[in-house]
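Peroxiredoxin structure dump, as promised
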Amino acid sequence: MECTIDWSGPEGMLFVARTGSGHVTAMDGAPDGGGNNLAPRPMEMLLTGAGGCAAYDVVLILKRGRHAVTHCRVKLTGERATVDPKVFTNIHFEFIVTGKNLPIAAVERAVQLSHEKYCSATAMLAKTASITHSVSLIEA
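structure tokens r here:
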């Protein structure tokens, strides 16, 4: 896995990332940190990556279990340390899963498997942060 990060120049703190799979995304800083608020912050991208990793796992586990999952949303709330390095100290994942006749136990098991076994991003963040989750189910 590879990626390249390029700074856009002296007018701000905009960075452009190019992934080995050929995708491009931007990151910027807050105005009080020299940025222009043109894109997400790098730490927001880290939190987003953890949410994407977990959501991917949950959907894949449910689909492999032949459950009729139609939508999955993960809302993340992260708290950071007040001193440098300002690592995440608490992260809450709120899973909202939609499907037809989905057993809540299957969804909760998928979330638990993601957090405890499959999600690499959560495993890394759990080294500094308390990871919690909740699950809501919506009938399709």
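The radius of gyration is 17 Å.
lmk if u need the other ones
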